[in-house]
Amino acid sequence: MAPRQAEPPQEHLAAAAAQVPMVLLNDGQALPQLGLGVWQIDNAIAPEVVTSAINAGYRLIDTAAGYGNESGVGTALRRARNQFYITTKLRNENQGYDRTMRAFEASAARLQVDIVDLYLIHWPCPQQGAYLETWRALVELQKQGCVRSIGVSNFMADHLERIIHESGVVPAVNQIELHPAFQQRELRNIHERYGIVTQAWSPLGQGAALADPRISAIAERCGRSPAQIVLRWHLENGTIAIPKSANVARMAENIDLFGFELTSDDHAVISRLDRHDGRIGPDPAAYGRIGLLRRLSRRISRS
Ligand code: NAD
Q: Residue 164's closest CA among 186, 131, 188?
């Protein structure tokens, strides 16, 4: 049997939580700048992991219908009443207005919440041709008060511009792959122009960023870990970061980002780690095709 992980001292962690800045969204709501991502955390252990994260000072939890752990996350959130912000995301196969409305209801039921703080379209899936009507469903969910903030994930410039121009509603957040090897400067500039907050998924490059000797050198000079350097870099760039860990000591390390600052030289060094081929995940322009049969049945039901 694996040894139980020791809980770090509570007063230190409460202090860490209090130091996490809040980021103001374009709809007047706010979110903590650091959260816990729970992709690949099994539903069976999600209650324990999320409870540990809340005890460690995390106030933002990032899940998705596609992660299969909304009900486990919901169990932990029920215990931690009002002390959290929950993000969840629509599965690709549920895009389309009516499907989205139903899928949202199912997500909220699994999470055991009446209101979701942030609801995202997980991927644009441009080949499905449904992200605009899906976005209109999110706008309606927000109007109905079921969702505090609405946003998107993995949207590229053309997808963003289309929903903004067609619906007149600017997403509060675009959650994108973002880490030192893949910095997405152009897209971040577009976010800034529209007032969209950038959320970084895989903020540690799934661990790869931590092995870079230039990050380790900064870490050594600051007396911090490589993960703390990368996460501090995200915070200083104004990005919301949602690192994943199921390990209590790492959760504590990843929120202990205060009391030090990176220099402009550190930023310049990390800036140069950006690579054209640095993407880890799928290309959003091509990801999330649905089968021919589903497309045909959609076309028939629309006609
Ligand atoms: P990540 O960059 O958070 O890296 C996670 C990996 O780093 C894990 O292997 C973990 O054990 C390790 N790690 C964490 N803290 C560490 C530390 N202090 N020291 C050493 N290693 C450490 O990658 P991720 O899990 O892919 O992304 C984080 C979250 O982003 C996910 O859980 C999910 O919520 C979200 N996400 C969203 C999308 C999307 O399409 N919207 C896609 C992928 C991930």
A: 131
Rg (CA), the chain: 19
How far lies 261's CA from each of 28, 221, 230, 243, in Å?
A: 28, 11, 12, 19
Burial 190-228 (b: 16+ CB within 10 A, else e): bbeeeebbbbbbbbbbeeebbebeebeebbeebebbbbb
Residue nearest atom 4 in ligand 1 by C-alpha distance: 206
The answer to whether 115 touches 146, Cβ cutoff 8 Å, is: yes
Of the candidates 246, 278, 254, the one whose C-alpha atom is nearest the C-alpha of residue 47 is 246
Q: Which of 290, 297, 284 is nearest to 121 (CA)?
A: 284
Mean pLDDT (the chain) is: 92
pLDDT of residue 47: 97
Task: Judge if the beta carbon of residue 226 lies within 6 A of ligand 1.
Answer: no
Q: Which one of 52, 89, 201, 229 would you pick to mutate in the ligand 1 pocket, going by the greatest count of ligand atoms within 8 A of its CB?
A: 201
How many Å apart are CA 45 and CA 36, to the nearest integer? 14
* pTM of the predicted model as reported, rounded to 2 decimal places: 0.93
* Contact indicator for 34, 59 with CB cutoff of 8 Å: no
Ligand 1 close to Cβ of residue 62 (< 6 A): yes
Domains of the chain: 16-302 (3.20.20.100)
pLDDT of residue 1: 29
Q: Which residue has the tokens 């050198």?
A: 217
Q: Report which of 229, 238, 293, 284 is spatially closest to residue 261, judged by C-alpha positions.
A: 229
Q: Are 67 and 46 in contact (CB under 8 A)?
A: no
Report how far ligand 1's centroid is from the alpha carbon of 303 (Å).
42
